[in-house]
């Protein structure tokens, strides 16, 4: 049953529902009635189940004590919950049981007592007569009108024309790239349009690009970028009806029907001579439109002309036409059915199709052109002034400044402005406590009344110039429509709206354009088809949006709507855009900005409980919770303590370690926060919280985060100062060797070079060999090339290649009486001498060999001679001279002969000794200079035995299908066993790495990072940060203890190999018997006191995620 009621500024038919547990009001009706300012949020939202028994909705808003008029003298105060429903108002059990309401189902009336205690009956007549049998029969008769349009558009008197401006350059565009999904949809839509006859293949010299945008239901919509075409098209000045003239025709009408055409633009054809101008390019061909598409300028005026031509005979008699809004109005129901039949016959004759979903038939109340039409009269929708009416009371200094910015812009129209503003301007000082008392409240309400008065707010006049000013903030959009009366600009309508969540993170340009799109949809009937209007924005790039070459899909979707209107954009500095800026920053729109993370009941209770014990916020919480709190920047909202500072509200965080640990986890460890460093984590938290000691807490938390330490690089200078090898005492006493290659295979079968360098004289030999030769073959090459002519060296420096560390090689070294000094593992800088010789030899080979690179072996003697005869900077002479006592003889010596050297062997020995002393001194100076220069970029080694260290992941071989770029940067932590050398400070150390890792356990300190365990009391309840097993298996190391509860099977506490005791798990006997029987047997024998064999080989067992991975653990243990 329905009952007619009046609430606020609107009336409706309320549904009486005895099965409803509450009274409900829809969001749409709340706005229509102008009750937005009275809406309150619930401290404890509730969830209800709707009549279908499945759908659930959250009730978080309500309106208290709303006057509901059933007759002019019968009013009751009712509380409503705001519900997303198609019914305007639902009166449930709370209202039915609140008083003596008599329902007569026989007469279909509702009776109650008025203010004079007289029993009166309410009006329960329906306002929607679309289900009346006469109406149903009429609509069934014209069912073909309500079908979707198909086939070629018939010839009609009016068609769309595209006329270029003088000197216009035919616009052309490139084809945009598309994904496979878009190409599939494009081909499907092209085939559909071709089948309908709406497009055809084209040979036009023009061509606009196409692109796709996502609809709300995730489907793809085809859009055509006609910006360049519209910019050069002559604008049609065809008239649109005046809205006030149309509404005057509705006097005395009681029945209304509104019709909307299905794909209205596509039911209008393009003039044949102009169709080539609508051409568009795709990957599947070049096409042009036969019908009028969306996005063309002048389309609204063409559509209005077509509708006027069809309905001219009956227009203003019982039909009003404004673009695609066709309104049928009549005084009686029978007249209305006849008038509606006449309109449907006209549409059938002209072969137009209507959209049944958007049509409203035989109504007594409906919305038309921004007004609410009823038999009792016509009233503008409250949306016109809703932005001001719903402006909530300022809660802080920023809110006051924002409101005064709006009021100050129109101060010249407000009588006594400075007197009214006096009680508000005093709040603009941040140092003063915010106490919004009665005087300030009266000034605020006086300003709202003044902004809605006739002196400020004017009625729209279609003959006056128009200006639309917009602005967007992080959480809202605002706009004002103004007209110039010849003296000044006056507002016509205000608009304010919360930014949808999906757009809250958009860039400023996109949000500013979104504000413009919203106001164009809202004021479309004011702006379409008339003279050019002015759009004012403080975003300068938007002034040039029509000339930008590329746009994203969202803006492309908006362009199809924006380009229907004729306007010119204008830029205004942000400081001058105070009125629209204020509307975009209404305080009731910004609540969502501070709720970007989810707070569950447990976390909320922690906040409320800890405020009472926290020394920083205890007194402030008590003050704000009292009935008459002292003026303060703090306030209580839904149990949370908020403080207004830096222009926004911040949530106060008490000093409870568990609470702060959870918040740090949400803003550092969560997937959406990305484990960023100290600065970015602090930035996230400072936007939302007032947190004493924030810097220290975040610094300690991030520095102790094992995920960060495992996965992030260290940006300090590398550890390990340069320590050159000792200078040898005699020639040929110490050599260094290494293999380089592979090179193109020579005819002799060699493809590598064994480089041998005397560490004292720097004399080098480049011996050809096979790059992958085995140890015996390399030993023969070394013996034949070096030892045969230079003798056995005392020391040999080489890397840790398997051939040099093989048993055969070590036996040969021992047989030769030499000692092997392998370099640090994976640290080629240890043997930099041969590495540098490799580089020099390769440079010389590049300059000498043929392009086919087949003669590199023949060029090795030349390379060796050139290398040894050049002056080496480390010894200050050539290696040849140091080795032989005299420089290499050159062909140029025949021109400038040198003095013959004495044959006296004593002089030769003295000269060789002098060369030795000189070279050693030079090498010592060179090493000292090199060490000083290198150590400026290095740090001393801080590691000692028993330290826990991370090891660079680059030192380990990769598993199959694993990318090194996505691996953690560090492995471990593992303890240092001992330094790998005589010096306790390294620089290489032996690490106790897990036995299953195939790696030599000696690492240079530059590949290590110190691990410092976190204090267990710093962040109690912190989630485990141990990485999960890559394959779901762990190796069982030992059994620690056992337990049994009642009849449940015995469980064993298992310690996993290579894991800390934090990873210990309880497993059943069956699980251990199936995976690690030897470990279980060994444990049972040990518990029985029987002799135990050696530790069994580790067995691998598959385990589910541990408790520490599923929920917070109470604390870290060592």
Automatic annotation (TrEMBL):
It comes from Chara braunii (Braun's stonewort). GO terms for biological process: DNA integration; proteolysis. The keyword RNA-binding applies. Keywords: Coiled coil, DNA integration, Endonuclease, Hydrolase, Magnesium, Multifunctional enzyme, Nuclease, Nucleotidyltransferase, RNA-binding, RNA-directed DNA polymerase, Transferase. Residues 909-936 form a coiled coil. Residues 722-887 form the Integrase catalytic domain. Residues 194-373 form the Reverse transcriptase domain. Signal peptide: none annotated. PROSITE patterns: ASP_PROTEASE, INTEGRASE, RT_POL. The lineage of its organism: Eukaryota, Viridiplantae, Streptophyta, Charophyceae, Charales. This is Reverse transcriptase. GO terms for molecular function: aspartic-type endopeptidase activity; endonuclease activity; nucleic acid binding; RNA-directed DNA polymerase activity. The keyword Acetylation does not apply. It comes from the Eukaryota. PANTHER family: PROTEIN CBG26694 (PTHR37984), PROTEIN NYNRIN-LIKE (PTHR37984:SF5).
């Amino acid at each position: 049953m329905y009952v007619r009621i009046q609430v606020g500024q609107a009336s409706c038919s309320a549904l009486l529902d005895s099965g409803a547990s509450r009274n409900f009001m829809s969001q749409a009706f709340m706005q229509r009635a102008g009750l937005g300012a009275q809406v309150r949020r619930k401290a404890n939202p509730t969830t209800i189940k709707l009549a279908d028994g499945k759908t659930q909705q959250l009730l978080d808003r309500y309106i208290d004590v709303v006057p509901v008029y059933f007759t002019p003298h019968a009013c009751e105060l009712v509380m409503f919950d705001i519900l997303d429903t198609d019914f305007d108002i639902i009166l449930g059990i709370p209202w039915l049981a609140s008083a003596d309401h008599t329902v007569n189902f026989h007469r279909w009336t509702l009776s109650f007592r008025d203010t004079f205690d007289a029993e009166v009956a309410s009006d329960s007549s329906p306002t929607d007569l679309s289900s009346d049998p006469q109406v149903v029969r009429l609509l069934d008769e014209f069912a073909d009108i309500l079908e979707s349009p198909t086939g070629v558009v018939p010839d009609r008197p009016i068609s769309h024309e595209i006329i270029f401006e003088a000197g216009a350059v035919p616009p052309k565009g490139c084809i945009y790239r598309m994904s496979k999904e878009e190409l599939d949809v494009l081909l499907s839509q092209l085939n559909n349009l071709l089948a309908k006859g709406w497009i055809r293949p084209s040979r036009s010299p023009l061509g606009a690009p196409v692109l796709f945008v996502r609809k709300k239901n995730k489907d793809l919509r085809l859009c055509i970028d006609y910006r360049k075409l519209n910019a050069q098209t002559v604008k049609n000045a065809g008239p649109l009806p005046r809205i006030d003239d149309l509404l005057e025709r509705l006097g005395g009408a009681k029945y209304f029907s509104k019709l909307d055409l299905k794909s209205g633009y596509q039911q209008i054809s393009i003039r044949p001579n102009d169709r080539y101008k609508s051409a568009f390019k795709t990957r599947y061909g070049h096409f042009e439109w036969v019908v009028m598409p969306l996005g063309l300028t002048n389309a609204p005026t063409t559509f209005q002309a077509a509708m006027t031509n069809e309905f001219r005979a009956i227009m203003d008699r019982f039909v009003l036409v404004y673009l695609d809004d066709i309104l049928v109005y009549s005084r009686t129901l029978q007249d209305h059915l006849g008038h509606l039949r006449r309109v449907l016959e006209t549409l059938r004759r002209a072969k137009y199709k209507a959209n049944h979903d958007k049509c409203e038939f035989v109504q007594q109340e409906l919305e038309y052109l921004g007004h609410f039409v009823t038999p009792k009269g016509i009233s503008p929708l409250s949306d016109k002034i809703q932005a001001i009416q719903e402006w909530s009371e300022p809660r802080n200094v920023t809110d006051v400044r924002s409101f005064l910015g709006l009021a100050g812009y129109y101060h010249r129209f407000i009588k006594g402005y400075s007197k009214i503003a006096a009680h508000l301007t005093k709040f603009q000082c941040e140092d003063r406590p915010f106490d919004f008392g009665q005087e300030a409240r009266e000034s605020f309400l006086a300003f709202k009344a003044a902004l809605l008065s006739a002196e400020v707010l004017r009625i729209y006049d279609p003959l006056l110039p128009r200006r639309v000013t917009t602005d967007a903030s992080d959480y809202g959009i605002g706009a004002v429509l103004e007209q110039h009366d010849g003296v000044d600009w006056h507002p016509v309508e205000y608009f304010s709206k919360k930014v949808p969540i999906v757009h809250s993170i958009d860039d400023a340009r996109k949000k500013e354009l979104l504000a413009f799109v919203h106001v164009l949809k809202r004021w479309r009937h004011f702006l379409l088809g008339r003279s050019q209007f002015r759009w004012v924005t403080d975003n300068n790039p938007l002034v040039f949006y029509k000339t930008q070459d590329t746009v994203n899909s969202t803006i492309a979707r908006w362009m199809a709507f924006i380009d229907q209107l004729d306007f010119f954009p204008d830029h205004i500095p942000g400081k001058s855009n105070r009125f629209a800026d204020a509307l975009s920053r209404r305080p009731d729109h910004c609540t969502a900005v501070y709720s970007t993370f989810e707070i569950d009941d447990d976390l909320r209770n922690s906040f409320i409980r800890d405020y009472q014990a926290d020394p920083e916020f205890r007194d402030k919480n008590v003050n704000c919770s009292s009935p008459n709190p002292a003026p303060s920047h703090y306030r209580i909202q839904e149990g949370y303590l908020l403080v207004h500072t830096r222009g926004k509200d911040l949530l106060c965080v008490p000093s409870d370690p568990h609470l702060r640990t959870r918040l740090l986890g949400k803003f550092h460890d969560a997937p959406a926060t990305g484990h960023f460093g100290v600065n970015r984590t602090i930035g996230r938290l400072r936007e939302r919280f007032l947190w004493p000691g924030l810097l220290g807490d975040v610094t300690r938390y991030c520095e102790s985060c094992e995920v960060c330490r495992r996965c992030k690089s260290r940006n300090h200078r590398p550890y390990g100062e340069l320590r050159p090898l000792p200078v040898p005492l005699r020639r040929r006493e110490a050599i260094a060797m290494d293999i380089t290659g592979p090179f193109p295979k020579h005819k002799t079968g060699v493809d590598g070079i064994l480089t041998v360098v005397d560490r004292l004289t720097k004399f080098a030999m480049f011996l050809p060999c096979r790059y992958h030769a085995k140890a015996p073959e390399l030993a023969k090459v070394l013996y034949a090339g070096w030892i045969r002519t230079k003798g056995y060296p005392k020391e040999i420096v080489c890397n840790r290649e398997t051939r040099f560390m093989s048993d055969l090689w070590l036996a040969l070294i021992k047989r030769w009486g030499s000692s092997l000094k392998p370099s640090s593992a994976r640290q080629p800088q240890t043997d930099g001498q041969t590495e540098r010789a490799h580089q020099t030899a390769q440079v010389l080979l590049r300059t000498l060999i043929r392009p086919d690179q087949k003669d590199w072996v023949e060029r090795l003697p030349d390379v060796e001679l050139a290398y040894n005869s050049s002056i080496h900077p480390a010894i200050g002479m050539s290696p040849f001279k140091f080795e032989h006592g005299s420089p290499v003889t050159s062909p140029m010596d025949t021109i400038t002969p040198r003095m013959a050297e004495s044959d006296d062997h004593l002089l030769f020995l003295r000269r060789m000794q002098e060369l030795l002393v000189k070279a050693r001194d030079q090498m010592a100076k060179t090493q000292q200079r090199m060490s000083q220069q290198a150590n400026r970029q290095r740090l001393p080694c801080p590691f000692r035995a028993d330290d826990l260290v991370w090891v660079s992941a680059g030192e380990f071989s990769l598993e199959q299908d694993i990318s090194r770029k996505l691996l953690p940067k560090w492995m471990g932590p593992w303890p240092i066993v001992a330094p790998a050398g005589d010096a306790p400070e390294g620089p290489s150390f032996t690490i106790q790495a897990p036995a299953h890792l195939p790696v030599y356990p000696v690492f240079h300190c530059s590949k290590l990072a110190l691990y410092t365990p976190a204090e267990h009391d710093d962040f109690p309840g912190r989630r485990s940060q141990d990485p999960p097993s890559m394959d779901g298996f762990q190796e069982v190391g030992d059994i620690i203890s056992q337990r049994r509860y009642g009849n449940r099977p015995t469980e064993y506490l298992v310690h996993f190999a290579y894991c800390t005791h934090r990873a210990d798990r309880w497993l059943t006997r069956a699980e251990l018997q199936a995976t690690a029987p030897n470990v279980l047997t060994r444990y049972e024998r040990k518990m029985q006191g029987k002799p135990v064999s050696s530790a069994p080989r580790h067995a691998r067992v598959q385990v589910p995620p541990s408790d520490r991975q599923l929920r917070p653990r109470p604390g870290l243990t060592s």
